[in-house]
Write a structure and sequence with these properties.
Two copies of one chain form a homodimer.
Chain A lengths: L1 H8 L6 H10 L1 E5 L4 E3 L7 E7 L1 E8 L2 E9 L3 E2 L2 H6 L6 E4 L3 E7 H10 L2 H26 L2 H11 L1 H6 L2 H8 L3 H18 L1
Antiparallel strand pairs in A: 1-8, 2-7, 3-6, 3-8, 4-5, 4-7
Chain lengths: ~200, ~200
């Protein structure tokens, strides 16, 4: 539990009693590499905190998986759309490594919001952070070239470059795998020239 | 004030005292058509509620304005990125019609959150809604063709189709203006055949 408690105390200042009420609703679950955490069509009823491992979400477009985003240690994730609207999810969540997740069930979270409003603040901050992450990603799509998107990914998520299979990175960046190989080759040539 | 009070009572259930504390922090401002509400480089220090009129935000990419989104009566908007991080905004907000806006200043909102936690809930719900709006928009970019993006815009925002100049709609949808004209012509031919 230590990781999630540190993560929330970084965002809000709950009392010991409030912290206990929070830990009471948290469930732990392990997922094997390649196991689905949520499947398209299911309703997403949890917020997930990644204690260990790596997950991705993806949507299927004309038979092809389009990777949405990656989340690793100490990240929070939920399919907020399905979670908030109670509609079947349009995406799937998959473990890319053996992963240990903590689950915050929706109904218990809503009771917690009412009993301990300090967690409304946590909910607000997490929603704001989710918005900022998506905004950066959307702006990169609209305003940046594929090469800029890749260099920015390497700069901001160096820990993911080695852990995530390359075709998922290409799909995440909206780049054809062969174009990503060309971009990587070009960058490595420039690096060689500079060293 | 009636519109904004209805809008918040639709989302949360504040007491009369809490409602008074809320109205105390709201400022009213009018903007002429084409006037900038926020200019790129300024820090966004308000949440805006559109009482009357129409606004858009845009970013500049290689000298060209790329329209981000439109907001009309009873919509909320802020550059959440600049608002939350205190960093200079990467976008500009412009009135597309003479507009009447209500402003919620950041500092007073934060004091309100502390004094009346019911407004934490409002902040959470608004951040969640902002996320959902952006998610829909981002998914449309990743998963839909230009023609699908346009027909979905017409279906979801029929009130904007007449009010927003066409080149802004094209820019918002990530379509060249001449392609949008072709798409509109094609749709109108199909409609003629069906009627």
């Amino acid at each position: 539990m230590q990781e999630i408690l540190h993560a929330i105390q970084h965002l809000i200042k709950p009392s010991n009693e409030e912290l206990r009420a929070f830990t009471d609703i948290v469930l732990a679950r392990s997922y094997k590499k390649k196991e689905l955490i949520l499947q398209e069509g299911q309703i997403c009823k949890n917020v997930y905190f990644i204690r260990k491992g790596l997950i991705r979400y993806y949507q299927v477009k004309e038979g092809t998986e389009v990777t949405g985003q990656f989340f690793s240690e100490n990240n929070w994730y939920t399919d907020l759309e399905s979670f908030l609207t109670h509609r079947p999810s349009r995406l799937s969540i998959e473990a890319l490594e053996n992963s240990e997740l903590l689950l915050l069930p929706k109904q218990q979270m809503e009771e917690l919001y009412v009993k301990h409003p300090v967690f409304e603040r946590l909910g607000r901050i997490l929603a704001e952070q989710a918005f900022l992450g998506l905004k950066n990603r959307h702006s990169a799509y609209i305003l940046r070239s594929p090469q800029e998107r890749y260099t920015s990914f390497v700069k901001n998520c160096p820990h993911l470059v080695q852990r995530v299979p390359q075709h998922y990175i290409a799909s995440y960046l909206g780049i054809q795998p062969q174009s990503l190989s060309r971009i990587r080759k070009r960058i490595s040539l420039v690096q060689d020239l500079l060293t």
